[in-house]
Amino acid sequence: MSDSAPRPNADEEWENLLRQWRTQPGAQPRPYFYSRVQARLIRETAAVHAPARTWLHWPAYAVMLGLLLLLSGDDAALHSMSSANHDSSNWPELPFESK
After folding, report:
1. DSSP assignment, residue 72?
2. Which superkingdom heads the taxonomic lineage of this protein's source (predicted)?
3. pTM (two decimals)
């Protein structure tokens, strides 16, 4: 069972505890802590951003751009290329076209 009876000097105990905490000196990091943190950050960021890996993605970007342009539905380039290569008078007439 819990001791729920009010203690007569509970406020004094809390005040004593808070006073002890206030008189303790502030925590200080170990020597060269910030230098070690800075060196670790530099080491980790240099390992993540390796420039050799960046240029390996460029061919994939070029292929994706080509597929996007090919599948975008704008085939004006294909029509202009086909009309330049073929003479329209040589095409056979289709039976469903009317003159």
Report:
1. S
2. Bacteria
3. 0.28
